[in-house]
Recover the amino acids of this structure.
């Protein structure tokens, strides 16, 4: 498995996952929202380890890296006001979707 390619796709999707969770479950606590974002990225480490038990170290490292990326996106969104109650996650989602479109276009 090419973990570098996989991680670049995951990192491109993190802002979209965070924005989606914030829009749908914005009232939940941060720990729950982070887990929802990880789940939406397909990074439920328990499930991944069932599918590929020989990749446990890589799965754990990828899950931690994605979790750190989620924390970073949330910190920036909070600091910039993208997560204020008036706009919810709309601004972040618009930026994230534009960023993913750029990444996809470059990959094609």
């Amino acid at each position: 498995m090419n973990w570098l390619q996989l991680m670049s796709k995951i990192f491109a999707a993190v802002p979209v996952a965070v924005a989606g969770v914030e829009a749908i479950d914005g009232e939940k606590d941060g720990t729950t929202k982070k887990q929802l974002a990880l789940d939406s990225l397909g990074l439920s480490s328990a499930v991944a380890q069932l599918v590929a038990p020989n990749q446990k170290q890589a799965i754990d490292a990828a899950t931690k890296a994605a979790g750190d990326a989620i924390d970073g996106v949330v910190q920036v969104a909070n600091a910039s006001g993208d997560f204020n109650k008036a706009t919810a996650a709309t601004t972040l989602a618009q930026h994230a979707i534009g960023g993913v479109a750029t990444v996809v276009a470059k990959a094609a």
About this structure: The longest helix spans residues 56-80. The mean pLDDT is 76. The CA atoms of residues 38 and 60 lie 12 Å apart.
